[in-house]
Amino acid sequence: xxxxxxxxxxxxxxxxxxxxxxxxxxxxxxxxxxxxxxxxxxxxxxxxxxxxxxxxxxxxxxxxxxxxxxxxxxxxxxxxxxxxxxxxxxxxxxxxxxxxxxxxxxxxxxxxxxxxxxxxxxxxxxxxxxxxxxxxxxxxxxxxxxxxxxxxxxxx
Length: 156
Fold this sequence. Notes:
This protein is mainly alpha-helical.
């Protein structure tokens, strides 16, 4: 436990408080759905650009459609989850954020790896990876356990 003494009182880390994890599982699912919607909407203007590029290159540019959605999603995750707030737009709406257990801030690469591990886990184990949250401390998912991260509420 990370505790420090300030003016004679023992101050523990915000992540050690069990109240920081109340309702996190539901909030994560809703935040994920909001982020899907945002990535889908962000993909539209990029798809128009790829369409125009494909016309200008006599169809060669249309091969970019195969990587368009993953590229937009990675850029979105890098800039939001890897930013100063350590939360995507959906996570901000649900008052949750991603924290590292060692207290260091989440950087863009960690955010992207977190997201890629989430999708790789879903491909291999389907949504069963969410069952890990029922048995793990702090309601952490499999990719949280692998990266040493935790999702907690901002408002507590």
